[in-house]
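User:
Hi there, any thoughts?
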Amino acid sequence: MEAEDVEVPVPVQVQEHEADGPQDDAVQQQFDALYMAKLLGKLRNNDKKPEAAAEELQDALRKLHALQQAFVTKQAKQNLLDRLAQVETLEALQKVAASRKAQVEAGYDQEKRELQKAVTEREDALRLLERLADEVQQEKRKVLEHERSRQAHEAEVAQLNEVWKAIQKKNAHRKAAVQVATGVMITDEEDCGRVLDLQTRSIQEMHQKQKQLEDEKIDISTQVKRAKRKIEDVSKQNDLRSKDAEVKQREQDYMTLQQMKKWYDHIRTIHESLSGLEITNVADDYLEVRVLKSRSVRLYCDPETTRLQRVQFLTPDVATADLVEVAVRDNNVQYFLCEYRERVREQLAL
């Protein structure tokens, strides 16, 4: 009996298994065993030979595996399409970028306005300080004028006191002289009353003037104290501004030195790369030079005369006795380094 082709359908359990994702190994083995048992039973019913049944079974398993892979591939593509559908369009991204750019420009304009406002406030503060300084100078001049006038008023008060004392003494002497000369007590009450009234008015005027001068002295002292406080405040502000200027100048000098150092290091690197000579160490009595990054030599010089005294080779593998003799004799360091570099280059080329 000829073997008939048996179409192996894909079980529903397989599709559900692929849709649900990977399951436990025991469940997978149980499912494979049941599926193979069912397939073998169907083959027996069709009177298939064992070889044909085995071949059809292998073919069915290959188809099952291919269907599983195809399902996984389609599922991955579907997931990718779902994710791509969530990505924003180019137009939306451009709108977002434009919005963010507008926000950044608005922030920049705000900061620019704030900076301009700060500059304006600083200029106003400087003008205010200048005006306060002028006012302080004016107050200082007024204080000096009041000080000079105070001394004059005090002198005038002292002079008036002396005059009053002299008048009192003169009246006493006059009264005593009259009484001694006449031997009679003064009985003219009108004369005494007029003299007394005049002296009383003079005394009252002097007391009033003295009180006025004392009040002026107190006012002047108060103004002097106020002016001194203003001068101290302005001096402190000037000190702070001068300190800020000194700090800025030091920072600027430091940046300038850093730039000069950077330029010097750059030029030195270029010079070393072009000449092949690199100064590696500078001591009190010698200078160590590396030639073509392979040989090092020390040049010993007199610290006072800077004259070359002797040469020490840290790697003495190049014949240089004649160069050392000429260099020490003529004090020609440039000649020695150039000739030694050429001989090192020849040595390296061997």
About this structure: The longest helix spans residues 90-182.
